[in-house]
Specification:
Layout lengths: L9 H14 L7 H6 L10 E4 L3 E5 L9 E5 L11 H22 L3 E5 L16 E6 L6 H6 L8 H11 L5
Antiparallel strand pairs: 1-2, 2-3, 3-5, 4-5
Helix pairs in contact: 3-5
Length: 171
């Protein structure tokens, strides 16, 4: 049986950047810290929400439309390194992300999780981040199973617009 190939060229840059950042954290710039310092939320930086201790940003390499990352602003790699205030805001921001995704996309379910360390699957293990991923019944199709590729039907700028409009406002 011939091997079919489907090009996913963006993966090469992602793999190289993640590997380089892990090899030289002192000399390299943490991509999440750079995003945290990139200014107010905008479609350009992908930041949907910024609090005083945590923020939510679109995943540049999403598993599905609306895939958010929730992170502490401070560069820490483990949950045990968070202060109580950082932990509280990280989880409050995660709850708000769930509400925003639910309002914007009406998914059938959500995945919420963290990959702590490279061996656990973290692409960027040195800056703690939680994934909030909308899911739909039947959203895993032959492309993922056969070709190892996900088809995302929405541009990141469109996802940013939807999520920003749907983000819960403080009362």
């Amino acid at each position: 049986m011939p091997l079919e190939q489907l090009w996913a060229g963006w993966r090469d840059a992602y793999v190289r950047e993640a590997a380089e950042a892990e090899r030289s954290p002192a000399g390299g710039r943490c991509v999440f810290c750079a995003i945290a310092e990139s200014g107010p939320p905008s479609a350009d930086n992908g930041v949907v929400y910024r609090g005083s201790l945590a923020f939510a940003v679109l995943n540049a390499y999403p598993y599905s439309s609306g895939h958010l990352l929730v992170l502490p602003l401070r560069h820490v790699s483990g949950l045990d390194e968070l202060t109580d205030d950082e932990s509280g805001e990280l989880w409050a921001t995660s709850r708000a992300a769930v509400r925003a995704i639910t309002a914007a996309y009406a998914p059938d379910g959500l995945n919420l999780g963290a990959n702590l360390g490279r061996a656990a699957g973290a692409g960027i293990p040195l800056h703690l981040h939680l994934h909030v991923v909308p899911r739909w019944s039947g959203d895993t199709n032959f492309m993922t199973t056969v070709a190892g590729v996900r088809v995302i039907p929405e541009a990141l700028a469109e996802a940013w617009e939807k999520l920003t409009r749907s983000w819960p406002r403080a009362t």
